[in-house]
Amino acid sequence: MDNVINQLQQLGFSEYETKAYIALLQQHPLNGYALAKSSGIPRANIYGVLQKLEERGAVVAINVAEGVVYSPIKPDDLISRLASHINEVLAAAQRDLKALATPINQTYVQNVQGSDQLLEQARELIHRANKSLLIALWQPEAVVLAEALTQAQARGIQINILCCQACPQECGGCQGRIFRYRITPDQQTHGLIVIQDDYEMLVGTTGANGTAIRTHQAGLIDMTTWYVRHSITLAAIVTDLGGTLESALQPETRQLLYGIGQGDSWLDHIRRLVENGETSGNQP
């Protein structure tokens, strides 16, 4: 019941209008006095509420010998009318706002807080894609975004996905060309990158304290695009080298890789991934 009340209020119904309509759905037809009693709406307010519901087309007044009684329209008809009205309002608002607007330079950086909001914004970018998507993600997030990715694939969007978990078997979440290369160890927070049409980007981390940024800034998008592509390339090369990795490196390169780690060397980190069989690739 609470869900229905909240949903109707989000569609513009007042609390009293929502209660009156639901009460009529459960018992109808009713006169104003009976409806006030069954819905808990004060009698002084009930006829104003009914007038609003009539204007919305949510109830109809019926003249009977005893006076006027009210009956609700079917829920399917109500939702259809609301959808039509909302679409008309949205179309008019879009038209009028565009007429008023001057060109907007969309170079902002928007902060996104929380995993749910991050994933919702990722879905939005996927749905808005016209040509291409470049994505890096882990398996749990791939499953959540699976439906949106399937729809994008059906629209003919070119999708390239870096599966950071390197799933040994297809999980069903990823679509398009999938590159299964693990370049980071297991962790509680997972990185997520979604780049739409090389035009807009979402990048952040999921988890209890997930945060992200969403931006149109071309420089940031280019840098992140190259990061994902270079990560795919690095993992593919490391996979091919396997046990010959260290011997294939020049002394200066080994020295460099030993010096850029945190706690241990970056070369040690790469070696562990190779030894544990965690860096693997698949390019369908």
Q: Major sheet: size, sense and barrel closure?
A: 7 strands, mixed
Give the termini separation: 48 Å
CATH class of the largest domain: Alpha Beta
Low-confidence stretches: 277-284
Helix-residue proportion: 40-55%
What's the count of strands?
9
Sheet-strand content, in percent, reads 15-25%
Protein traits:
seven-stranded mixed beta sheet; 284 residues; 11 helices; Endonuclease, Chain A; Arc Repressor Mutant, subunit A; 50% helix
General description of the model:
The longest helix is centred in the first third of the chain and has 26 residues, at 75-100. The chain has a seven-stranded mixed beta sheet, sandwiched between helices. Helix content is 50%, strand content 18%. It has two domains: 2-76, Arc Repressor Mutant, subunit A (Orthogonal Bundle); 109-237, Endonuclease, Chain A (2-Layer Sandwich), CATH 3.30.870. By secondary structure, the chain is α+β, with helices and mostly antiparallel strands. A hairpin with a 5-residue loop joins β8 (200-205) and β9 (211-215). It has helices spanning 2-10, 15-26, 32-39, 43-56, 75-100, 115-128, 139-144, 146-154, 218-241, 251-259, 266-275, and strands spanning 59-64, 67-72, 109-113, 132-137, 158-163, 177-180, 191-196, 200-205, 211-215. The radius of gyration is 28 Å and the shape is elongated. The two termini are 48 Å apart.
